[in-house]
């Protein structure tokens, strides 16, 4: 940016920058200079761009596919665990039904009903 362009820009305080340069301090880039420096990361943050906006369509599609695959795998695993628990419960119940002590304790004690 030339000196004339910088003087024309109302966001830049040239007198302050000239004072700092004469004093020997390092000059900090002005907001206008930051815009021209190609700081795309800062611009995207200022505009509120999200990660979704910055990613390409193909990368986003791959991530969505991977997320869907992970959800399906998790659902399959959960269903397998549920079926395994159900099978174990049924096996335990079958084992108990063959135990005479269990059957005796679970039966009603009112034998007069069966006379």
What would you say this structure looks like, in words?
The chain has a domain at 1-54. The longest helix has 41 residues, at 57-97. The chain has helices at 3-8, 14-23, 31-36, 40-47, 51-54, 57-97, 100-106. It has 115 residues and is mainly alpha-helical. The radius of gyration is 38 Å and the shape is rod-shaped. The model has no long low-confidence stretch (mean pLDDT 76).
In short:
With 115 residues, the chain is mostly helical. It has helices at residues 3-8, 14-23, 31-36, 40-47, 51-54, 57-97, 100-106.
Number of strands: 0
Question: If you average the pLDDT, what whole number results?
Answer: 76
Query: Oligomerization state of this entry?
Result: single chain
- Sum up the overall morphology in one term: rod-shaped
The biggest sheet, with number of strands, parallel, antiparallel or mixed sense and barrel status, is:
none
User: Secondary-structure element sequence?
Assistant: HHHHHHH
InterPro entries: DUF3886 (IPR024980)
Coiled coil: 60-97
Pfam family, one: DUF3886
Keywords: Coiled coil
Write the layout of secondary structure elements.
Elements: H1 3-8, H2 14-23, H3 31-36, H4 40-47, H5 51-54, H6 57-97, H7 100-106
Keywords:
115 residues, mainly alpha, rod-shaped, DUF3886, coiled coil
């Amino acid at each position: 940016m030339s000196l004339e362009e910088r003087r024309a820009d109302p966001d830049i305080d040239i007198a302050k920058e000239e004072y700092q340069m004469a004093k020997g301090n390092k000059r900090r880039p002005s907001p206008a200079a930051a815009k021209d420096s190609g700081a795309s990361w800062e611009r995207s943050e200022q505009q509120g761009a999200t990660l979704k906006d910055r990613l390409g369509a193909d990368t986003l599609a791959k991530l969505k596919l991977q997320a869907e695959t992970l959800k399906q795998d998790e659902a399959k695993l959960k269903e397998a665990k549920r079926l395994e628990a159900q099978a174990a419960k049924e096996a335990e119940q079958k084992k108990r039904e063959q135990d005479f002590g269990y059957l005796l304790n679970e039966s009603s004690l009112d034998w007069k009903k069966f006379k």
